[in-house]
Write a structure and sequence with these properties.
- 64% of the residues lie in helices and 6% in strands.
- The protein is mainly alpha-helical.
- α2 packs antiparallel against α3 (62-82), α2 (35-57) packs parallel to α4 and α2 (35-57) packs across α7.
- It is globular and about 50 Å long.
Length: 185
């Protein structure tokens, strides 16, 4: 199955070497010098995937998921910019590409965790039955801390953190997100 990936390093020689070693007819490797952007995109998408899973668990549709994806990408981009990442990185493979895949795939561990939370399961129970790690669970805590440190408004990240670590109900989370003060995109 044709697919792509991105490798990031500040060292152009290392990027090119890795690209050459791993590229095949079915695996296209791109390079990027924006290590911070690639790292943030590749990790924070897991938190947004949990939010998408909650939406699935609550029975919401594609329109809701599209809203979570687009606003989640805006949150990730705002934090990235504050941390010195290049905004265009978030339109690439480790940004939008990873985000879409992780948020819509039925095989996504993070989306699945969110779906179970949306259906009323608690995090401890979910994690006890998982054989693999859903990286978005610990990442939600780190992402929330970064949003506070950099003073970046990240309402989806914040609400996922509250869901996972403060036992907030999924319905209340949705209500609070939707009741936020209106603003421009």
């Amino acid at each position: 199955v044709p697919t792509t990936a991105v490798v990031a390093s500040v060292d152009k020689r290392i990027r090119k070497t890795i690209q050459t070693v791993f590229s095949t007819k079915r695996f296209r490797v791109y390079t990027n010098s924006d290590v911070i952007g690639v790292e943030l995109g590749g990790s924070l998408k897991n938190v947004i995937a949990i939010a998408c899973g909650v939406s699935d668990g609550l029975g919401f549709g594609t329109n809701t998921k599209a809203a979570i994806l687009t606003r989640g990408l805006a949150e990730i981009s705002r934090l990235g910019k504050a941390m010195g990442a290049k905004l265009e990185t978030f339109s690439g493979i480790s940004g939008l590409g990873d985000l879409v895949t992780t948020c819509i795939s039925k095989q996504s561990r993070n989306r699945s965790v969110g779906e179970l939370i949306g259906k009323g399961k608690n995090l401890k129970e979910i994690c006890q039955h998982m054989q693999m790690v859903a990286e978005g669970v610990p990442t939600a805590k780190s992402a929330y801390a970064l949003s506070l440190k950099y003073k970046i408004d990240m309402p989806i990240i914040r609400e996922v953190y509250y869901l996972l670590y403060k036992n907030k109900s999924p319905r209340q989370t949705v209500n609070d997100l939707m009741a936020r003060k209106s603003k421009e995109e």
